[in-house]
Amino acid sequence: MDPIMLVGLMAVGLGAGILGALFGIGGGIVAVPLLTIIFGLSVNEAAAASLVGIIATSAGAASYYIKKGASNIRLGLLMEITTTVGAIIGASIAVYLANWVLLCIFAGMLVYSAVNMMIRTEHQHDGSSGKKDLTFEYTDENENKDREYTVENLKGGMALCTVAGAISSMTGVGGGVIKVPLMNVYMHVPIKVASATSNYMVGITAFSGAIVYFLHGDIIFDLAGALAIGAFLGAVIGTRVSKHVNAGSMRKYFSILLLIAAAFIVLEAGGFV
Amino acid sequence: MNLNKSTAFALETCILLGIVITAAGLLIAETSVGDIVLKIGIFVLICSPVVSIAASYLVLLEKKDWRWLKVATVLIAVLAAGVVSHMLH
Q1: Among A235, B30, B37, B89, who pairs with A17 as Cys (CB 3.0-4.6 Å)?
Q2: CA dist., res. A44 & res. A26, Å (int)
Q3: Confidence of residue A71 (pLDDT cuts 50, 70, 90)
Q4: For residue B33, what are the contacts with CB-CB under 8 A and spacing of at least 6?
Q5: Residue of A nearest to B50 (CA)
Q6: What band does A70 get if pLDDT is binned at 50, 70 and 90?
Q7: Nearest CA distance, B37 vs chain A (angstrom)
Q8: ipTM confidence score
């Protein structure tokens, strides 16, 4: 492979990895447009390479967050069930729905989530829910404090995760941008835990797509490899940066990211990208 | 065994192995074995999330944490269904 292309792909992976690890979004929303526009890959080739990059980001970041107790493995396993079911349903019904309508609905959901995150303050756990099996603890590295939280609205959250999985598989836009606000705003999971748990989940979600691309021989291995190495390095940097970001700033930055993602999705719906 | 430590260890080991093999594959891409090394690296990398679920599963089994073991079992079944469904599409 041309060395300039190799470095370029690693740089795209690095950027996607940093953003993905910081916010739990995987990074596909950044990588796919860049791979198609700058490197001239087809959407299918870019999606296949991006899935490998998402796994590298997810594994690189989640291994750190899990070790630190920020990723909630149990919650991730549970919510991943309905996300995957949603993705299967979405893939089956995608042919019956216009893609631009779905993209507009998705963009609307992102704007709604962004506004909610901006205007509402993070729910503080008061220990009154009494749901011991859904109460967890994590260490906020920025404040160096152990914090307790209780997962609320679990059933509703799982149902909404099915919808997120379905829309995600129908539109090709990653589910992390929906799962993080869903966990944070609706289920009252602290933003740092929500993004760390989402980091763990996006890798599992990407696996089922990536393994199929692999078995079908649709992955361009050198491209995907260069992207994955950059994404892994980005994830390592992203996890270290996240230590220095407080929860309030993280919610603000995430809201801005959601609005930018919504704008890109609307442009995609209109056929501009 | 600790759920977080074991899962993190499995994930970290698998991803590091995948990245190292992939990097080696890229470095020797021009040789006759470059392609196969690269392919193995990407495969190991792709399998990292599943290896972490397997590690979590073993810990939950060892702890006899039946509730969350059921959750992990259902997830593995759903993931398998997802792969089959993707293959059919």
Answers
A1: A235
A2: 18
A3: very high
A4: none
A5: A204
A6: very high
A7: 10
A8: 0.95
